[in-house]
Design goal:
Keywords: Calcium, Cell adhesion, Glycoprotein, Membrane, Repeat, Signal, Transmembrane, Transmembrane helix. It is a single-pass type I membrane protein. GO terms for molecular function: calcium ion binding. InterPro entries: Cadherin-like_dom, Cadherin-like_sf, Cadherin_CS, Cadherin_N, Protocadherin/Cadherin-CA. One of its GO terms (cellular component) is plasma membrane. The chain is mainly β and 454 residues long. It has four domains: 29-124, Cadherins (Immunoglobulin-like, Sandwich); 137-233, Cadherins (Immunoglobulin-like, Sandwich), CATH 2.60.40; 241-338, Cadherins (Immunoglobulin-like, Sandwich); 346-442, Immunoglobulin-like (Sandwich). It is built from four helices and 31 strands. The chain has helices spanning 48-52, 58-61, 92-96, 286-291, and strands spanning 23-36, 44-47, 65-68, 75-78, 83-86, 102-110, 114-124, 137-143, 151-153, 167-172, 178-184, 190-196, 207-216, 223-233, 241-242, 246-252, 260-263, 266-267, 277-281, 292-294, 300-303, 314-323, 328-338, 346-352, 355-357, 364-371, 381-385, 391-395, 400-405, 416-425, 432-442. The strands form nine sheets. It has a four-stranded mixed beta sheet with strand order 1-7-6-3. The two termini are 47 Å apart.
């Protein structure tokens, strides 16, 4: 069988080819399993032997093991009973954040013959978090001539739980002027809006203090509260206006702390205090507030901590411009994080046998997987071993490789081999990882005694 090679001097280069050489990718679909988050270590997931239709003891006999995509051992296989168990308590929010459903991908590897089963574990959410408002008190300055029916969007509460356990409703304390309206976004979240039902009169009542409550959909539901303090103002008839509704910018992930990301600008034609504009984040998560900071006077947005493309590759920032009379405008800033080649390739060894009998035919010695957390060209990899050794690498599926002998070995010619597996990415600059293996050739009785003279 022909193997495509890259022309690098004195190095055998093997491209990513999905080549099957005595290896099978079992099944055409995924094995789908689930477990509740926070389940105790050792919780039962599935009996793999029954699920795969294997005989008793076959999992142990074939050296079955479970390999996770991110090289973390979330699951533990009891090869004697065939039970797949949790190896630790799983926190859905730490593993997947707001992503729902929360899926962990893994592979089941078996020998004799070598097979790979692809599978996924869904971590199901429980209602273990209450809604929390970033600000315990919000001050709204509303002009006394505001028309009935006007709506004021309030900052939503944060709840890391997913599905029905996330925030489902908002309420406001009883009052004569305002009610709550629930609005949805194109991102699937709901926001509270304060709607004016009765005209305000500053001379009659200059301030109101209301309690905003966020409720999730758990059973029983959890809640969180924030105070909405309303200050009724005299007339300010012009709100600030941003020069752009949307700002788009890019920032390399190695940008130093303090770097200027973008500058937003809003104008207000009113005079005096009513024309002075202050900038701030609006409805920003804790992650955005810890990553960026904004100058309230100039509108310049700076980097507050280092970016990491592999963790977050883009940010959406809502910016508010508030004038001295309490009127506001909002714009959005999209920050795209640019990847740099800052992660070397990884080699994850699944199995390795360091002894082989001489005169054995082609034999698999090691099975391993390679991965690179970078993206694009930075994440593409080349895997090879040195020349002048009687071994070769055969690519399999899912970035797995098999180290095999090219043919029979002769212990009397050479009893020990040192093999270096090199994984190089295609980024700039190129990063590489090397893994050294030692293989011993064991003796068989293949030579008869011979006299020195006939």
């Amino acid at each position: 069988m022909a193997v495509t090679e890259l022309c690098f001097p004195r190095q055998r280069q093997v491209l990513f080819l999905f080549v099957f050489w005595g290896v099978s990718l079992a099944g055409s679909g995924f094995g789908r399993y689930s477990v509740m988050e926070e389940a105790e270590r050792g919780s039962f997931v599935v009996n793999l032997a029954k699920d795969l239709g294997l005989a008793d003891g076959e999992l142990a006999a074939r050296g079955t093991r479970v390999v996770s995509d991110d090289n973390k051992q979330y699951l533990l296989l009891d090869s004697q009973t065939g039970n797949l168990l949790t190896n630790e308590k799983l926190d859905r929010e730490k593993l997947c954040g707001s992503t729902e459903p929360c899926i962990l991908y893994f592979q089941i590897l078996m020998d004799d013959p070598f097979q790979i089963y692809r599978a996924e574990l869904r971590v199901r959410d429980i209602n273990d978090h209450s809604p929390v408002f970033q600000e315990k008190e919000t001050v709204l300055k509303i002009s006394e001539n505001t028309a009935e029916g006007a709506a004021f969007r309030l900052e939503r509460a944060q709840d890391p739980d997913g599905g029905l356990n996330s925030i489902q409703n908002y309420t406001i304390s009883s009052n004569s002027f305002f009610r709550i309206k629930i609005s949805g976004s194109d991102e699937g979240m709901i926001y509270p809006e304060l709607v004016l039902d009765k005209a305000l009169d500053r001379e009659e009542q200059g301030e109101l203090s209301l309690t905003l409550t966020a409720l999730d959909g758990g059973s029983p539901p959890r809640s969180g509260t924030s105070t909405v303090h309303i200050v009724v103002l005299d007339v300010n008839d012009n709100a600030p206006q941003f020069t752009q509704a949307l700002y788009e910018t890019q920032a390399p992930e190695n940008s130093p702390v303090g770097s200027l990301i973008v500058k937003v600008s809003a104008e207000d034609v009113d005079a005096g205090v009513n024309g002075e504009v202050a900038y701030s984040f609006f409805d920003a998560s804790e992650n955005i507030r810890s990553t960026f900071q904004i100058n309230p006077i100039s509108g310049e947005i700076f980097l507050r901590e280092l970016l990491d493309y592999e963790s977050v590759n883009s940010y959406k920032l809502n910016i508010q411009a508030l004038d001295g009379g309490g009127l506001s405008a909002r714009c959005r800033v999209l920050v795209e994080v640019l990847d740099i080649n800052d992660n070397p390739p990884e080699l994850i060894m699944s199995s390795f046998s360091n002894h082989i009998a001489e005169n054995s035919p082609e034999t698999a010695l090691a099975v391993f997987k390679i991965k690179d957390r970078d993206s694009g060209e930075n994440g593409k990899m080349v895997c090879y071993i040195q020349e002048n050794v009687p071994f070769l690498l055969k690519p399999s599926v899912e970035n797995f490789y098999i180290l095999m002998t090219e043919g029979a070995l002769d212990r009397e010619s050479r009893a020990e081999y040192n093999i270096t597996i090199t994984v190089t990415d295609l980024g700039t600059p190129r990063l590489k990882t090397e893994h050294n293996l030692t293989v011993w050739v064991s003796d068989v009785n293949d030579n008869a005694p011979a006299f020195t003279q006939t």
